[in-house]
Design goal:
Elements: H1 3-16, H2 25-35, E1 41-44, E2 50-54, E3 61-67, E4 72-78, E5 83-89, E6 101-106, E7 109-115, E8 138-140, H3 146-151, E9 159-162, E10 167-169, E11 173-176, H4 179-197, E12 205-211, H5 219-228, E13 232-240, H6 249-252, E14 261-265, H7 271-283, E15 288-292, H8 300-305, E16 312-320, E17 328-331, H9 332-348
Parallel strand pairs: 3-12, 3-13, 13-16, 14-15
Antiparallel strand pairs: 1-2, 2-12, 4-5, 4-9, 5-8, 6-7, 6-9, 7-8, 10-11, 11-17, 14-16
Helix pairs in contact: 1-2, 1-4, 4-9, 7-9
Length: 359
């Protein structure tokens, strides 16, 4: 198998694996196994964030980061006639749930189910029709009693994920669930691979971080930031392609899939670090776009930036269509732009770079 074939095989294995918030370990093991040939050592913290380290003895520390978790559901209540009611685990969208096929993760293994919904014939099209809401979403696992459900290994607290697999669309896009943000995990793995294969010598410690629990409040990044105490952080996550139908560009900004990586302006984003990234993008002719965030980026950038008395942090985003659905779409050229920008920045970066505003 060629290097390219191995990379694509890893991408599909990693993206197709379930990695719900708080239960990311299976995906983290896949990711760690892939990056092990490219690192000197690794860290796995108490809640499952994984860090690949190059030059662990160096004093100056640079982090590149993505998050590994995906949105999902919890079983919250089981009725006497065998239906499951759910609550969110992260920002799961109740609107898209009806008629979705699901996997219920149990100690006995995967149990199949579906989000049921009343047939259109029974709805008259007025305000009294049921609408998808958390309170009326139910999962049907083909059981007729609560005991039958329990006998399958399903209990309150079991995690539910959608049944879906990565695919390509028109040769240009990857499509699937949880590209937010396991595609970021793929990106940082490829940056690491290129550094290794090109024999790049870094004069700083590089910490390649795949964080957990971003989807419920940036918690994995908060924990690992305090452990690593980095000097510089470049996070990657996703942002909205606002040229898709039904987006308001005046409100959300203008970002288009296929037009390159997105660099953020926000209070948590260090201005000089972002400008250094822009300079690299311009000098290497890497396409990029700009976006602004009013108060926070809503990404792990915020946790790193405000940790340890303040850490120079920047965000490179991947434009994404249909976020938090099972058909999230990312353009292959944008993925390459994010990889190239991170890689080229790290190659030219020097230990000791001082990002204090003035001294």
């Amino acid at each position: 198998m060629s290097i390219m074939e191995k990379n694509i095989a890893f991408l599909y294995q990693y993206l197709n694996n379930a990695s719900p918030v708080g239960f990311e370990s299976a995906g983290q093991k896949i990711w760690l196994d892939y990056i092990k040939p490219f690192i000197h050592e690794h860290i796995v913290d108490t809640y499952g964030t994984v860090v690949g380290v190059v030059n662990p003895k160096a004093d100056y520390k640079v982090v590149i980061e993505a998050h590994a978790d995906e949105i999902s559901w919890f079983v919250n209540y089981i009725t006497e006639d065998g239906y499951l009611y759910v609550i969110r685990n992260g920002g799961s969208d109740h609107i898209i749930a009806p008629s979705m096929r699901v996997n219920i993760h149990t100690a006995k293994g995967i149990v199949k189910g579906v989000f049921g919904w009343p047939a259109i014939h029974t709805r008259v099209g007025d305000k009294d029709d049921p609408r998808p809401e958390i309170k009326n979403l139910t999962v049907d696992v083909g059981c007729s009693s609560k005991q039958e459900v329990l006998d399958l290994g399903i209990h309150v607290g079991c995690v539910i994920t959608y049944v879906d697999e990565l695919m390509e669309l028109n040769g240009k896009y990857y499509v699937g669930r949880a590209l937010d943000n396991r595609m970021g995990g793929y990106v940082i793995s490829q940056v690491l691979r290129r550094i290794h294969e090109n024999n790049v010598s870094l004069d700083y410690g590089l910490y390649v971080v795949n964080s957990v629990q971003e989807e419920i409040g940036l918690r994995g990044a908060e924990m690992i930031a305090n452990r690593l105490k980095p000097d510089v952080v470049i996070a990657t996550d996703v942002c909205h392609d606002t040229l898709s139908p039904l987006y308001d560009k005046k409100k959300e900004g203008e970002v288009k899939a296929g037009s390159g990586a997105v660099l953020s302006y926000a209070p948590a984003v260090h201005n000089r670090l972002r400008d250094d990234l822009i300079a690299v993008a311009e000098s290497k002719k890497i396409p990029f776009q700009r976006m602004a965030s009013s108060r926070s980026t809503g990404t792990d950038t915020d946790s790193f930036a405000y940790s340890n008395g303040g850490v120079a942090s920047a965000l490179i985003s991947l434009p994404l269509k249909y976020m938090h659905t099972t058909v999230e779409m990312a353009h292959k050229e944008d993925i390459e732009s994010v990889i190239n920008l991170m890689y080229e920045f790290l190659v030219q970066f020097k230990a000791g770079t001082d990002y204090r505003y003035f001294s």
